[in-house]
Request: fold
Amino acid sequence: MAKQDGIVVCPGSYDPVTNGHMDIITRTSKVFERVVVGVVDNPIRKEKTLFTAEERKAFIEAAAAELGNVEVMIFSNLLVEFARELGAKSIVKGLRAISDFEYEFEMAQLNRKLDPSIESIYMTASPDYSFLSSTGVKEMATFGGDVSDLVPASVAAAMADRLGDR
Ligand code: PNS
Reply:
């Protein structure tokens, strides 16, 4: 299949990136010519992040290195502004379950209001990852659960280090 021209943005907090995020990023990279993963510097909805934006970016860069058409950038402005600055036509996000729908529907409408020229596209999560969230992974790792099947290897090691200190 020929890839769609242009740039798309896959935004998120990615604190940390999970195999579910990587599944969406990988599938997006097969459909679009150039993918920019946008790491939110300081997500307002969330408590302090476990990893810095630079750390979160580095984890994704390592996990996406083989894809060839994925680059990772940190942003701290509005998502549609970030997308516009890049000349991106669309935002691609993953949708896991009905529980994601309400929040994502609101975000898509707000973003459309801010800039109707940028489309929000949702890719449904693979069944293997539809239960997976960064929050769940952090909770498991905090209590010593094995997360090695759920996150890239560098993330599992960093989580053991960071949460082991607590
Ligand atoms: O679910 P996430 O990973 O925390 O989502 C982060 C993000 C930026 C994709 C989400 O908050 C969103 O779609 N925000 C749109 C509103 C916006 O531009 N906020 C500024 C950055 S927080």
About this structure: The first strand starts at residue 4 and ends at 12.
